[in-house]
Amino acid sequence: MDGFSFYQLQTPTVLLLLLAFYGGTFLLSMRIGRKSENVDGYMNSTGAVGFGVSAASMTATWIWAASFYAAATSGYKYGISGPIHYGLWGALMILFIYPFGRRFRALAPEAHTLAEIIQARHGRSSQMILAGSNIVGSVISLMANFTAAGALVAMLSPLEFVHGVLIAGLGTLAYTLWSGFRASILTDVVQVAAMLGAAAIIIPMVFFNAGGTEVISQGWDRFTAEQATLFSKTAFLEQGAPYFAAVLAYAIGNQTIAQRLFAVREDLIKPTFVAATVSYGATVIGLGMIGVVALMVGMEPAGGDYNNLIPQMASTYLGPVLIGVFFIMVIGSLSSTADSDLAALSSIVMTDIYGRNIARGRANPKVMLWVGRITMIVATMAGLIFASYRIDILSLLVFVGALWGSIVFPVIGSLYWGRITNRAFTTSVLVSLVVFCAARFELIPLVGVSALLLELFATIGAGVVLGLMAFGFFGLRAGLVVGIGAALGLMPFTLGFLRDYTVLLSSLNAYGVSTTICVLMSLRSSEDFDFRLIRRRVTNFHDEDADDEVLEMEGAGQPGRA
Residue 344: is it exposed, middle or buried by C-beta count within 10 angstroms (0-12/13-18/19+)? Predict the structure, then answer.
């Protein structure tokens, strides 16, 4: 295979490694006593998790299979700037959420999901839009992680792709099923320690075994001019900018982040997210450089599948012991994210579908727990089925993240600006989704007036992205100045240009269209929402007295509720 020899672990060795990993995590999760479980602890550990566990859990959740595989793919496609575009913007995603996260916690200290807060702000339709997007995203994330497990096992052992998918799926489900989020964060601590330690050993070993500095001098000729520079225009427009837009949407739209936000002690939000930002960025950029080395040595992805690059490099340039370490590192990374997705999905169904809608605030905690567990089983089966399609992970991540861009401004704006209505929220998101899909799949001709309109909204979207970041860290005035200034400043460069970059064009349209519609509709509104109502409406499920009080206080037909 392209002149490279590959070492495979024996089947008994692989099975023993998998048994040791999943057996160990299962025993670790059993430390959580069944008698001490309650529905709120199952979903967010009652909001009192300390700094060390929270930072480790956030890091483990986002150093996932995609961080390995997609970062390497980016390095292989775009050269030395590829991993930086992947790792830096991914790290920024984690940092981006904390200033808004403090606002979310202040409004609803006892929240379980972000959609639950949106229901308290707007009503059922807006809640279901946000909950539905999270369900889709988490199932796709499960699929991506199980796909990575299948590729790893198929490359490094005589077992087949389907065996790796099944073992990872059932193994993760086994240790997460009973205790939910608590099991996820408890096992994350061990998993992240193992991952970071293994990465610190494996990344330099692959580099030196591939030839060290010699491979750089000899392999430099394989680079194009764009791949050889840190300031690659191609890498920025095709990878960096679309991913930048996508990961900011992940920060708002992904329940796995929100769940940890609601779990950590409120005074520890900032240090937790800053620590996770640094550890994620450094590790993922390093892993992405393995893809750059693969490009330097002339390795071709096995079967044309970029997901095989990381296992190929490990198999070629590591000895048997380090291949075993690498195997556990990847299994740990994908399992830590898969269990987070299962916990997130269970919380969404328990809270947003059963607790706040079917049960209408009078949920039976025992029934809720079983709803969560059944959700995990169904989600695992769905992830296993979809993993069989073997979709390219990097393309999938950019698509889902861009799709979530439609909800970013309506969600953030709704929790700061009292004039945004339920109708403005739902209309802006739905229209934006339609425009995004039409642009992404080129259902709208990217020529003439239609292309110019899409570029105009994309330019507004670029201003929205930068403006929201400035607003989160520096306040409203800075956000408006940066957002409006960026849109006006970029307009001469984007009009007539972005139509050649469909992924970036559609991603920015998701932001631009939703923001424009939401703002215009809200300016016509006379509503002035009292944000103190959110705290009263969003309560713990096990506190029945508080639930009854809220029901009596709010009744039916409150303004702003569907």
Answer: buried
**Domain assignment of residue 122, yes or no:** yes
CA distances from 126 to 342, 468, 531 (A): 23, 21, 16
**Based on the domain organization, do 422 and 349 belong to the same domain?**
no
Domain membership of residue 458 as a residue range: 416-539
Q: What is the pLDDT of residues 280-295, one digit of tens each?
A: 888 889 888 999 999 9
Let me know: does 151 contact 311? Beta carbons within 8 Å: yes
Contact 446, 454 (CB under 8 A): yes
CA 336 to chain CA centroid, Å, is 13
Assess whether 349 and 451 both reside in one domain. Answer: no
In a domain, 228, yes or no: yes
List, for residues 115-136, the tens digit of each pLDDT value. 999 999 999 999 999 998 888 8
Higher per-residue pLDDT: 38 or 551: 38
Q: What is the DSSP string of 54-76?
A: HHHHHHHHHSSHHHHHHHHHHHH
Pull the structure tokens for residue 216: 């750089």
Asked if the model's pLDDT at residue 549 lies above 70, the reply is no
For residues 489 and 384, membership in a common domain is answered with: no
Q: Report angle CA 263, 269, 271 to the nearest 5 degrees.
A: 130
Give 367's contacts (C-beta < 8 A, 6+ positions apart). Answer: 354, 359
Rounded to an integer, what distance in angstroms lies between the CA atom of residue 429 and that of residue 411? Answer: 10
Do 294 and 365 fall within a single domain?
Answer: yes
At residue 70, the pLDDT reads 80
> 188 forms bridges with which residues in the sheet?
none
Residues 156 and 250 in one domain: yes
pTM of this prediction? Answer: 0.85
Is 474 in the same domain as 360?
Answer: no
Residue 20 shares a structural domain with residue 150: yes
- The Cα–Cα gap between 455 and 445 comes to 12
Bridge partners (DSSP) of residue 264 are 49
Contact (CB, 8 A) for 320 and 7: yes
Other CB atoms within 10 A of residue 389 CB: 9
| Rg, Å, the chain Cα set | 23
* In-domain check, residue 546: no
Q: Is residue 487 part of a domain?
A: yes
Quote the CA–CA distance of 335 and 24 in Å, as a whole number: 13
The phi and psi torsions of 426 (rounded to 5 degrees) equal -65, -45
428-463 pLDDT, tens per residue?
A: 999 999 999 899 888 988 999 999 999 999 999 999
In this structure, the answer to whether residues 351 and 474 fall within a common structural domain is no
How many independent structural domains does the chain possess? 2
